[in-house]
Structures are given as structure tokens and as C-alpha cells.
Amino acid sequence: MGRYFAIRIGRAALTIVLVVTFAFVVLRLSGDPALMILGPEAPPEVLAAFRKAWGLDDPIWFQYLDYFGAIAKGELGRSMRDGRPAIELVLERIPATLALTLPAFAFKVALGVPAGIYAALHRGSGIDRAVMMTAVAGFTVPSFVLALLLVLVFAVQLGWLPSGGQDSWRHAILPIATLSLGGAAVLARFTRSAMLEVLGQPYIRTASAKGMPWRRVVTSHALPNAAIPTVTILGFMVGALIAGAVVVESVFAWPGVGRLLVVAVANRDLAVVQCILLLVAMTMVTSNLIVDFLYGFLDPRLRAKGAHA
Amino acid sequence: MSPLVSIAGLSVAFSGVPVLRGVDLALGKGEALGLVGESGSGKSVTWLAALGLLPRHAKVSGSVRLDGREILGAPAAELDQVRGGRVAMIFQDPASALNPVLTIRKQLCEALALHRDLQGNAVKAEARRLLDLVGIPDAGRRLEAYPHEFSGGQVQRIMIAMALAGNPDLLIADEPTTALDATIQAQILELLSTVRREMGMAMVLISHDLGVVAENCDRVAVMYAGRIVEQAPSNQLFADPVHPYAQGLIGALPPLDGPRRRLTAIPGTVPDPAMMPDGCAFAPRCTLASESCGHTAPSLAPIADGRTVACIRAEASRRALLGIAAE
């Protein structure tokens, strides 16, 4: 068991290093922050001074080592735009993002999981088909289209809700709805197929052959097995809590981490982008670790494998 | 004596395709009946249908009586009492027949709680006794284990323990040894016949292994393409099969004694259930078939005491077997 997790934690750390390295290299190859921030009309000596001040004229491997050295000391750099520590800029945006993603996560689970279970138990029924059609629509329609559609109906046509901004709780309704619907659709489909797979297993028939009422067969034999694949997709959703709302925040002018990321990338504000990506990688990896741990809890076969691994 | 179970005209269709086409079968108390036939002949479906275990889209008709009481289409609560309580069932692939995420204790105790009036520690004690009974060593500790921690033979023993939990009057063993090694097969069959004797249970042994059936059953019913084509006491069927299909099955077995002989194979293949011939389903493969075999499907008719055959050429077939020329 200990080794099972040691290996996974090692892999998780490697994933974070790879993500950060990738971001570091791509950002430096894809544009000059000095030009982006000071503008093309800036005199060459000003640009040179800017590059020197931020260490941009050092060789890339030197910058890279420097960057990791700083991380080791707990420094994540400063924003090139206003000189504030990048981590501060990011942290102050997190509550706004969580104000959207946490309720959205709750709605996704509350809508998607029961819908999937219901559809699986009534396979082929009208409700099953309706749930699945909604689900397919829900995850084929990109979130920006859905967002605009909701704005068109509820803000423009009906005038019930504001189309953007962060002044009151009413401003959060449309962004949360956009995030929830797509996620609930994905979750419903996943849960349904996991459930169908389990319901076709011989041990379900065994439970029925024992004389167990169908309702109990579902709750105590089918659901615990169907939970295993469903937890995987839930893990991804937890991992996306910090940065899963980039598009939606942009559409609804919601000042969260996602919008900060878009602005920082556009400006080549290196430290801020790297800081966000590091944070995203860490949440993703952590939630995956939690999922791995839950697998061990849900499936005794994996527990045994871990013990022998 | 009134039969324990009597099945009459049991038919099953999956999305319009008939897989059982009128099965008639009766089973006495404490009797061991073998049900043989090729895969797809409807052996398992017969009992899954009788117990209401088929998926909802299966169309089931006919009658299944348990102690004279109709159970086909009975309310769910009544069926739940029958399943596991009066009629228990064990399946072919033990490895997937137990829930992988629940302990053996949980799965055994569920069956006990459903059908026996036991509380608290008595449930666990009974579970331990059942595991002991089916020969799982160190039963007390092994109760807390998960199915994957047992071998295939052991899991089948646990399945048998679970089936016995409700003190059933009938145990349906659906190919109980097909997925097991030959040595384990013998042990499981031995265990089944021991518990059957001790508990006075009736048993239906579904198998495509004629040897297994011959050794363990009083009576045998042969199924072909969703119908029973012949039933007889075991020794009579194996010594003197009448239906050409039963003859073919037995002719394909190598004799243990006597000179070596060429094994005979039944020509052709089982008809597609969606394209059943009009008359006797076996007629296209039958060497004795006459023109009239293609017109009407023969029904099971008695030919001797305790023997029934569904073949209009039964007499000719018998002569052919005995080597008497048909005049």
C-alpha cells in the first residue's frame, strides 16, 4: 500500500515538473514580453534595459535553472506589468473563480449522477433517450456557445439576469449554469455507461437470484461498482476547479483566475502565467492522487495489487 | 406425487426472435434432473425465465408452477421469496458471479438475512457453518476476504454455500463446473451430490457434458433449438437414446470399453433461431428425416414408462439404432 502511493506521488511530482517546464519553454519561444508590455514603439535601449532587468537576455537554460532555484526558495516571481508578486495576483482571484466552480461542481454532481443512474435503470425508455439527447447536446455544444445562448435568452430577450460582471449573486447565475450544464451532461453519460456495464455483470444476476429486491440490488450491489469509473471523471472535475472556467469567465467578464490567465498570456506576463499553470498542475495532480486513493478504497482488488506491487 | 416444479409451454423471445419454443418439464421433490444440449439450445434460459431473471425486453409466456402455485409473472415480492428461498441458482463462471467489491461475509449474510429468521451473531455463525459445510478451510477468517482472494473452485464452493443459505427445495446448477479444472470439477460435483443428499434438495444440473449428467442425475432431458426433444431416466437414455439428436450426441462420445470405433458427428449446424424450419427443428440435420418431418413440429409424446420423445420417426429411429432394417 505504501509503495503504491510512493510511486504515484513520484509520478505526480514528475508531472508537475514537466508541465512547468513545457510552459516555461513555450512562453519564452512564443514572443518577447518586453515588446508586449512596452509596445513596439519603445526605444531599443528601454527594451534592452527591460530585458536585462527581468533576466530575459540570459540563455534560456540559465533562466530555467534560475526559475527552479527560485521555486525551491518559495518565490514564484513578480508580474512584469505591475511588479507585484505573481502568487499574490493569482491568489486574490481564486475566491472569485471558486464562487463559480464550486457551486457548478455541486450542480454537475447533483444533476448528472442521478440522471445517469436513472437513464441506465430505464434503458431504452423515453426518459433515457431524453437524458441522453440532452447529454449529447450538452457536451457537443462548446461552453462559449452555450454561454452566449444563455445570455441571449436570459439577459437580452427576457432581461431577467445580467449578462456580465460580478456585482451581485445574480451575476453568478448564468456563468454557473453554463459550467453546470456541460459538466452534468458529461457526468450523466459516464454514469449511465458505467451503470449499464455493471448491470450486465453476472454478480447482479446472482444478487437477484438470491431473492434480493431489485432496489437493494441496485443500491448495494450495482452502485458501489459503478462508482469506480465515475470517480475518475469526478477527479478531473475537481482538478478543473481552479482553471476550468477560462472561457466562461471571459464571456461573462468575471474577474477570476481564468481571465487573469487570458490577460497574462496575451501580455506574455511570464511569471503570472507560470504561477497559474503551476497551480493548475498541482490541483490536477492532487485530485488525481485523491482518485487513486479512492480507487483503493472502492475496489479491494486494487488494494491487494497495491499491497503486492 | 405432485411435482415440485412443473413447466408447461414455456416460451421466450428476445426482440421477436424465439429462443424457447414451448418447454414442458416436470421435476419431483428431491429429484436430480440433467438438462443437456448444445450452447444456445435454451437450457439456461429455461430456468432464468422460470425465475424471472431474464432482462425486461425478453418476452416470456407459458406456465411455471412451484408446488402448484404459478410463479411466472408473479409479483416481485413473491418472486423474491422464491428466488434463493425455494429455488436457488448457481452459475457457470464463479469468478464473475460474486460481487468483487463486497466481502464474502456480506454476500453470504445477505442471503441468510433474506430467507432465514436469524439475528446478529447467529447470522455470522450460520455463515461460518455454511463455509465449513462446503469445505472452505479456516472459515471464520476467510469470511472477511473478497472474492478475488479465492481460487475458482473455492468461489464456486462459496456460491454453493450462498445457494444453500435459504434452505432451498431446488438447486439449479447452470454449468457449475464448465469454467473449472478437471480435478476441481470432480470435487464440486461431489460436493453438490453430498449436499443434495443431506438436505434432500432437488437439483437441475445444466450441462453440455453428458458424462457429468450421466453420473449425477436420475433423469435427463435433452434440449435442441429451444425445445425438449427427449427425456428419460439417465441409464435408459444413455443405453438406448430414441431421438435422432440424442442418438447423435451419444454417438459422438467415445466408449470407455469395447473396441475403438469411429466417432460419429452430427452433420450440419444448429438452425438460426430467427430462421427456424417449419417442422421439426432437427429435420435438416437428421439422417432419418422424411418429408412429413418438415411440416409439423412433433410434440413430446410418451413412448414408455417415464420416457417421452418428440419425434414422429421415433419408432424408425429406434430400429435404426438396434440395427433392425425398417421393412
From TrEMBL, chain A:
Transmembrane segments: 12-31, 98-121, 133-160, 172-190, 226-251, 271-295
Keyword Transmembrane: yes
Superkingdom classification of source: Bacteria
Entry keyword Membrane: yes
One GO term describing the cellular component: plasma membrane
Domain ABC transmembrane type-1: 94-295
Keywords: Cell membrane, Membrane, Transmembrane, Transmembrane helix, Transport
Coiled-coil regions listed in the entry: none
One Pfam family it belongs to: BPD_transp_1
Topology within the bilayer: Multi-pass membrane protein
Molecular function via GO: dipeptide transmembrane transporter activity
Family annotation (Gene3D superfamilies): MetI-like (1.10.3720.10)
Compartments where located: Cell membrane
PROSITE patterns in alphabetical order: ABC_TM1
Family membership noted in the UniProt record: Belongs to the binding-protein-dependent transport system permease family.
The name this protein goes by in its record: Peptide/nickel transport system permease protein
Protein source organism: Bradyrhizobium shewense
UniProtKB/TrEMBL annotation, chain B:
Gene Ontology CC entries for this record: plasma membrane
Species annotation: Bradyrhizobium shewense
GO molecular function, one term: ATP binding
Biological processes, Gene Ontology terms: peptide transport; transmembrane transport
Pfam families recorded: ABC_tran, oligo_HPY
Major localization class: membrane
Topology in the lipid bilayer: Peripheral membrane protein
UniProt entry keywords in alphabetical sequence: ATP-binding, Cell membrane, Membrane, Nucleotide-binding, Transport
Protein name as it appears in the record: Peptide/nickel transport system ATP-binding protein
